[in-house]
Design brief:
The chain is mostly helical. The protein has 16 helices and no strands. Helix 2 packs antiparallel against helix 3, helix 5 packs across helix 6 and helix 7 packs across helix 14.
Length: 266
């Protein structure tokens, strides 16, 4: 495949609901209000119900239940509610693919989102932007599966060490899933910071214009690829990326997220 335009000519883009397009616009608007986000989500009763279920799940550890979008925003936060709503819309936009276990796929994506959010804590970065970008990283693989089912089977072949999927994608398609997701995000008008991070997540140090968010998502993706990851998985991460971000290994091991903190979309 010579270009991303040529690749995208072979796929059918997922159909995004109107509410999702509206939420994406608020990502590009620093002045977007709580009421604007609430009203967008409330237009879709099914999405609202799903969002309330997510907000009441054990991962958020709320002391009491929430029964309205306003309460969810108050208890969980506007940015997290918007990220959850967009993630739910994205997960519904893609159809099942032969050869890919979608529940496992989405659990992986939610693990990547959680790791990305966690890594931003000492870096003074937008944690919810990192969460959403981490959740989106693997979406490009769904388009690869649509365009080339045979390649998807090779990409998913076991064993599957961390980062192997990216290498197989580059070899078979010419692009990593993150690069394909970046182009999809560009076409859907996501913020340029998210687009650039997805482009660079495969190899964040090779680009002249370093993306901290891309480096965070790179590490998050590797951890999500690690079966039964625990604090010792920190030692397997690329030192050059960890050091460039200025992350402290001692802090990473002491605060490593437990699997029961991962949000489950389904």
């Amino acid at each position: 495949m010579h270009s991303l335009d040529a690749f995208f000519a072979t796929v059918r883009l997922p159909s995004m609901p109107e509410v999702a397009h509206g939420l994406i616009q608020t990502l590009n608007d620093d002045n977007a209000s709580l009421h604007e986000v609430r009203d967008l989500i409330s237009r879709d009763p099914a999405l609202s119900a799903r969002l309330l279920r997510l907000a009441n799940s054990a991962q958020f550890g709320l002391q009491r239940g929430v029964y309205s979008i306003d309460e969810a925003i108050q208890m969980v936060g506007l940015a997290q509610v918007r990220a959850l709503a967009l993630s739910a819309c994205l997960s519904d936009a893609f159809e099942p693919l032969p050869g890919l276990d979608l529940p496992t796929f989405w659990r992986h994506s939610m693990a990547c989102a959680t790791y990305a959010q966690w890594l931003t804590a000492p870096l003074e970065m937008d944690s919810q932007q990192a969460w959403l970008t981490g959740m989106m990283l693997r979406l490009g693989e769904l388009l690869i599966g649509q365009a080339n089912p045979q390649a998807l089977a090779e990409i998913e072949r076991l064993p599957h060490p961390p980062g192997a999927r990216w290498e197989r994608e580059k070899r078979l398609i010419g692009f990593s899933e993150g690069q394909i997701t970046a182009e999809l995000a560009r076409r859907w008008n996501f913020p340029m910071q998210i687009v650039q991070a997805l482009e660079r997540a495969y190899d964040p140090l090779v680009e002249q214009a370093f993306s901290r968010l891309g480096a965070v998502v790179n590490l998050a993706g590797l951890l999500a690829d690690t079966p039964d990851a625990d604090a010792l998985a920190v030692d397997t991460l690329p030192n050059d990326v960890v050091n460039t971000l200025g992350l402290e290994v001692r802090w990473m091991k002491a605060t490593f997220p437990a699997p029961d903190t991962f949000v489950q979309l389904h």
